Amino acid sequence: MARMSNKRRLEWSFFLNDRSRITYNELCRKCQHQCKQSFRAVVVDCPKYLSKRSKKKDKTAGNGKIP
After folding, report:
1. Domain that holds residue 13
2. What's the number of domains the chain is made of?
């Protein structure tokens, strides 16, 4: 198995776990998008994350326009 260079290790240090493996946040592990976050970060909001339990927003309601 190839070892990570010191420069690359410094770049990825926020993502490395105790076994020096790149680890992503639980929400980001199975996500298809490239905006993955570290397991150390607390995800407050991800615009590309859609939970199966979330309620679908009505497109006509809450569009921000005043009639």
Report:
1. 1-39
2. 1
